[in-house]
Write a structure and sequence with these properties.
Elements (H helix, E strand, L loop, with lengths): L2 E3 L4 H8 L4 E3 H4 L7 E6 L5 H13 L5 E7 L10 H7 E3 H4 L4 E6 L15 H14 E7 L1 H11 L4 E15 L14 E10 L2 H5 L4 E7 L3 E7 L4 E4 L9 H11 L25 H18 L27 H7 L6
Helix pairs in contact: 1-3
């Protein structure tokens, strides 16, 4: 199944050339199916690059996805054409009354700055509060994960002595979990960050479950018990050359940047990049979308009936025996 994008979005042409199944909205309107509604809160400076990375992963699924790109009113992004933002993005005030199956909150290169000193922090908090009531499952990436963990649970990030930079081996803590189903014994994830939320901090919150860890990079994946908030500290969405461009950029600025670990062949930047993370990136996004598809109410207006910590309840209905039966009461997708 395809992912639905607006006509003219630069990512459309790139992904069509890669034979990724993307569809324009005009054709989608002829299909009798309710797609998953996914909103992306894109906080990265290079908007078009991040759009393409995430759309590529969202499109590699048998599910139809309708995409909404969200920007902030409280911050002006300077590394993108204003016309691109005006054409393809909506501000939060324009969609705060809408509901979504899923939301992705991206990272941002501001990890060393205290959250309260970021000019859009109050608006982002409002969006995260909104997601609790109006989004079935929210995926937080890198700095977005640290922001979500701080806002929802008070977990403070720790600034690292040096940048965690490279592609690191990980293992799934629970390989039978919905989000890690099918993962290998060892899998790789790129990291590029100056801050960390530790495993001890995450495990201090009963509502959170650590799902994937690395001896070198710490916790990559954690989620709430009901999987309605998911946190990734790594960057499984990265392109093959993302770390290469970052490494070369830092060198051009005269920064003493270490060679990204496990990235170039034999750790030699003159040799080719070894891509070893894309398979599990696609698998994770497929697992997340499948979970969202199976458990989101068919009628998104019923999201208001979902209690954060557990099952779905309707005042006029008798108590359901479990979450699946409860979802059947309001027409859950895929049931």
């Amino acid at each position: 199944m395809p992912i639905l994008v607006q006509r003219g979005l630069p990512a459309y042409k790139t992904l069509k050339q890669e034979n990724v199944f993307v569809m324009q909205d005009r054709r989608a309107a002829k299909q009798d199916i309710r797609p998953l509604r996914i909103a992306i809160v894109n906080l990265m400076p290079l908007k078009e690059v991040t759009e393409t990375q995430l759309i590529r992963l969202l499109a590699n699924s048998p599910l139809q996805v309708e995409l909404e790109l969200l920007t902030l009113a409280s911050h002006t992004f300077t590394h993108v054409d204003p016309l691109h933002m005006e054409t393809f993005y909506r501000k939060f005030d324009q969609l705060r009354r809408e509901k979504f199956d899923g939301m992705i909150i991206t990272g941002a290169p501001i990890e060393t700055i205290p959250f309260e000193e970021i000019d859009y922090w109050n608006e982002l908090k409002e969006i995260m509060d909104y997601s609790t009531e109006c989004v079935f499952s929210t995926l937080h990436l890198c700095w977005g994960a640290q922001a979500g963990l701080y806002h929802h649970y008070g977990l403070q990030k720790e600034i690292l002595p040096e940048k965690l930079f490279g592609v690191f081996p990980h293992r799934a803590v629970d390989k039978k979990h919905d989000l890690t189903r099918g993962f290998d014994e060892e899998f790789f994830v790129p990291h590029s960050r100056w801050a960390d939320v530790s495993r001890a901090a995450l495990e201090s919150v009963p509502e959170l479950k650590v799902l994937a860890v690395s001896d070198e990079a710490g916790v990559h994946m954690a989620a709430t018990r009901n999987k309605r908030r998911v946190f990734l500290q790594g960057h499984c969405e990265y392109d093959w050359d993302t770390l290469k461009k970052e490494y070369e950029r830092d060198l051009s600025r005269g920064e003493k940047t270490k060679i990204p670990v496990n990235y170039f062949k034999n750790d030699d930047p003159k040799r080719r990049v070894v891509v070893r993370w894309s398979g599990h990136a696609n698998l994770f996004f497929s697992n997340w979308l499948n979970f969202v598809y199976q458990e989101t109410p068919y009628a998104l207006e019923d999201l208001g009936l979902l209690k954060w910590r557990g099952s779905v309840v309707k005042a006029a209905d008798p108590p359901a025996e479990d979450g699946v039966a409860a979802l059947e009461n309001i027409g859950g997708l895929g049931i």
